[in-house]
Design a protein that fits this description.
The chain folds into 2 domains: about 90 residues, no CATH class; about 70 residues, Roll (SH3 type barrels). It is an alpha+beta fold and about 190 residues long. The strands form 3 sheets. A 4-stranded antiparallel β-sheet has the order 5-4-3-9, with no helix packed on it. A 3-stranded antiparallel β-sheet has the order 6-7-8, with no helix packed on it.
């Protein structure tokens, strides 16, 4: 039994006349149509690496007025205003990577002038060294600009803008103007 006998014209017509045969024919037609659409999308649309961003005013070209040869100047019309990006528009971008890289300033490093004028102001450092208890009250031992101080809750540190608001177990809460900070043992604030 050969292939010609299996797919004879009469059997094909009989198969297509049944509902099962019609379903198979429609399915095959959809598969062929899907393949044609995929081929068109793959080859007809531009590749992501070949994209260029057009400036908005470049969408409609402006006609250049004709001048007589005696009125011609050396001005040239702006060519196509195409902006080429230096990154791939469709590349993977990590949503957890910060947009701006942080830079660290070492503790005690000063910038600017001491009177606060100039490009920057003098940086001050407040560090929590230890928490001690004397007479039932807790005191924090802090260093302010390299000098060690013992302060209680509600006291200002050496006439600075830092005020100790609360002393906890292993941490203190400090007010600096309207800003509130919690310092753990060994941590420092640079302002």
């Amino acid at each position: 039994m050969g292939l010609k006998d299996k797919f004879s014209e009469i059997e094909m017509k009989n198969t297509l006349s049944t509902s099962k045969g019609k379903g198979i024919a429609v399915g095959l037609l959809l598969v062929v149509l899907l393949l044609v659409v995929l081929v068109v999308i793959t080859f007809a649309l531009p590749k992501p690496g070949n994209l260029a961003v057009q400036a908005p005013n470049a969408a409609v070209p402006k006609p250049i007025p004709q001048q007589s040869p005696s009125e011609q100047t050396t001005e040239t019309a702006a060519e196509d205003e195409t902006v080429i990006t230096d990154y791939d528009l469709f590349e993977y971008k990590d949503p957890f990577r910060p947009l701006v890289e942080e830079t660290e300033t070492p503790i005690g490093l000063t910038t600017g002038t001491e009177d606060g004028a100039g490009a920057g102001a003098l940086l001050t450092t407040l560090a929590l060294v230890d928490i001690v208890e004397q007479g039932g009250a807790k005191y924090a031992i802090v260093t302010f600009d390299g000098v060690e101080y013992t302060v209680g809750s509600g006291e200002q540190v050496a006439g600075s803008s830092f005020m100790v608001e609360d002393i906890g177990d292993g941490n203190i809460t400090v007010l600096y103007g309207d800003d509130r900070f919690t310092l753990q043992l060994g941590q420092a604030i640079v302002k």
